[in-house]
Write a structure and sequence with these properties.
Elements lengths: L8 H30 L6 H30 L3 H24 L5 H26 L1
Helix pairs in contact: 1-2, 1-4, 2-3, 3-4
Keywords: Cell projection, Membrane, Transmembrane, Transmembrane helix
Membrane topology: Multi-pass membrane protein
Protein name: Transmembrane protein 80
């Protein structure tokens, strides 16, 4: 009986793509927050601090999530992959916050957030799909 292979090339590619996309997402969202706070919009200071804090928290969460997911996929270990899947839920909730509930939502926020949520959805489905085989 052949050993069951747990690593997945499509999942690994998604982790790399998600890392690159999140770097762009982080910078673009940070620039959008700066634009919204310095332009004609009124952006209360308390909301500004909350949005920036949540963005940095999301950055830390995303880095840990991608590290654990990559490590779990490459070493064929289910525990880091499962931890990455749990962290995906938290990161997805923060992405939904920036997509729907932040103080000011622009069309650019929608585009960036929708793409990030699509990547999170694909990364969540691939490990589950693999375990069913």
């Amino acid at each position: 009986m052949a050993p069951r292979l747990l690593s997945s090339l499509p999942l690994q590619v998604l982790f790399h793509l998600s890392g690159a996309w999140y770097a762009l997402y982080f910078l673009a969202t940070l620039l959008l927050i700066a634009y919204k706070s310095k332009s004609l919009f009124t952006y209360p200071l308390g909301h500004l601090v909350l949005d920036v804090t949540l963005l940095f928290l999301m950055g830390i969460l995303e880095a840990v999530r991608l590290y654990l997911g990559t490590k779990g996929n490459l070493t064929e270990a289910e525990v880091p992959l499962a931890a990455s899947l749990v962290l995906t839920v938290g990161s997805t909730l923060l992405a939904v916050y920036f997509l729907l509930w932040q103080t000011l939502v622009l069309r650019a926020d929608w585009v960036l957030g929708a793409a990030l949520l699509a990547l999170h959805g694909l990364e969540a489905v691939l490990p589950l799909d693999r375990s069913l085989c």
